Amino acid sequence: MGEALQLARRAVGRTSPNPMVGAVIVKDGHIVGRGWHQKAGTAHAEIHALNEAGPLAADASIYVTLEPCSHTGRTGPCTEAIIRAGIKKVVVAMTDPNPLVAGTGLELLRKAGIEVIEGIMALEAAQLNESFIKWITTGLPFVALKAAMTLDGKIATRSGHSRWITGPEARLFVHSLRNQYDAILVGIGTVLADDPELTTRLPEGGRNPIRIILDSEARTPL
């Protein structure tokens, strides 16, 4: 399951609004298939792992970080693919909080005679997809507040000439967050004072979030 979680993390910031999922197929003590969900609308982790395993998937075990889906969206149900492949055991970290799944996938697998084990590294799996879980269960976004201040509570010099309080490590971390989140939001005061780019600038590149500015009087310079 640890290997499956590592695979899922490869897609950080790439699967929204879907969760990040990793899958590993094991047969006779050896990994024969690996997969992770790489982008919304594309094949799920289980399908990638099954394709890599091929005929070796028969009588094998699959470890998945999230309950396999049992409904048809932009892709077909993974439960059907697992059953067709002849998998004998499915180990999942956590059930899918999506009301369209919510245990029905595991029920279908059990009805097909497949052994199902759940709750393996469930906490780690939930932490991996905390943004998805918050959204799918409440309809509200998962929000991170980024703030920097000195030990005495200041965020800038009185003259406003300061540029950074944080060091390079913290700034790099902030850009890694921008690479993960769907959007970045600032107020008009920040725009007028700093003229921020609000983009992701990582050494290896990254994905820019949607830029949102709270500006009730349309003061943002063109």
Outline the structure in words:
- The chain is α/β, with parallel strands linked by helices.
- The protein has helices at residues 2-9, 45-53, 78-85, 104-111, 122-128, 130-138, 168-180, 188-194, and strands at residues 22-27, 30-36, 61-64, 89-92, 115-118, 183-187, 210-214.
- Strands 2-1-3-4-5 form a five-stranded mixed beta sheet. Strands 6-7 form a two-stranded parallel sheet.
- The termini are far apart.
- The model has no long low-confidence stretch (mean pLDDT 92).
Task: Describe this protein with a few key phrases.
222 residues, elongated, two-stranded parallel ribbon, alpha/beta
- Unreliable parts: none
**What sort of overall outline do the alpha carbons produce when their principal axes are compared?**
elongated
Classify the oligomer.
single chain
Discrete helix count: 8
N-to-C SSE series?
HEEHEHEHEHHHEHE
Strand order of the largest sheet: 2-1-3-4-5
Task: Compute the average pLDDT.
Answer: 92
Query: Structural class of the secondary structure composition?
Result: alpha/beta
* Residues in helices, as a percent range: 25-40%
Taking Cα atoms only, what radius of gyration do you get, to the nearest Å? 22 Å
Strand residue content = 15-25%
Distance between the termini: 50 Å
